[in-house]
Amino acid sequence: MAKIDRANVLWGLGNHDIDYKITDIYSSVAPEIKIDMSHSEMGHYYQLIAANAPKHCLSSVTIPEIPGVVPFSGITVRNEMVFFILNSGLCSARDQTVKHGKLTASQMDWFSAMAKKYKDDSRWKVVLLHHHPSNYPFPSAGLDISTLEEGSSFIDVCGENGINIVSHGHRHHPKAFTEFRSGWANPITFICAGSTSVNSQHREHGRIPNCAHIIKINKSNRDIYLYNYQFDHTEGWVPNKSNCRETPLDAVMFLGSLFTPSDANEAFALLVNHDIEQQQLPPWQELPSQLRSLTLKKLNSIIRTTLSSSHSVYGYYPDQVLISRISK
User: Fold this and answer.
1) pLDDT tens-digit map of 152-204
2) What is the DSSP annotation of 258-321?
């Protein structure tokens, strides 16, 4: 339906893609088997068998061009993009004491080496994995125990080696932001995807809609546009209707660059011509980067706060905004 060539569909596995029945065999039967192998070693092999099981269930899955060290991991290169595909669900099983994502030492070592190899590559570098690398606040209070075990080290490797985008899922709570830390080669945009098909009980009792996202990038200036959609039972897939605690996303978001509040205020000051009675501000997509990087709620707040004593403001972004000078 999306008219995407199958060769350009990249697959990443999550915590529900491990065959639990295979890991259950180890839990129930393996301790009674007497062979020259420790139970931990045997458990490791059962886990690998369980992780490889999807290969037989998903015959149409495109395997990464450069294989990684664990099933369904590797590197795929497409035009101006380098995709690192990691398997954070590899160790997911019913007997996992604390449910969380894990890359394992071998996969972390492999990713670190390959990220360093591509560090000076000018192409966009994107990491795809299932679990979120750091704790995100839930819309309602709750203990987050599902984060990636090696999250801090993983983020450091991404930052030091110029990864541009980290895209993941797992939580069903969509989120998107750009971050930059000391020692990083460039800012990283983190995109936590919502789910396209989860029942209401797993979406904060229906408060979080099923979501879909489209990422568009500008190769020349490294701009990232994120288009967010939610499923409406009467209208179908529609642009995200509201930026709220459950779905903190605008319908369209400008990501990839970082600016201070002063940068935004200065950029807005340059837009306003105080010598004319009435002025229509530029469409959202034509605003300076410093303003497009703000959420719509913050952008509209800046306009009204800045002009409250000198202008009347009509309309809200992303629609038309007209300002009229107050006569004194």
Assistant:
1) 999 999 999 999 999 998 777 889 999 999 999 999 999 999 887 776 666 65
2) ---HHHHHHHHHHH--TTSSEEEPPPGGGS-HHHHTS-HHHHHHHHHHHHTTTEEEE--TTS--
By the 8 A CB rule, do 40 and 49 touch? no
Q: What is each CA distance from 133 to 151, 168, 175, 184, 312, in whole angstroms?
A: 4, 9, 13, 16, 44
Gap between the Cα atoms of 159 and 169, Å rounded:
20
Long-range CB contacts (within 8 A, 24+) of 227-232: 227/251, 227/252, 228/174, 228/176, 228/252, 228/253, 230/194, 231/196
Cβ atoms of 215 and 174 closer than 8 Å: no
What does pTM read for this prediction? 0.85
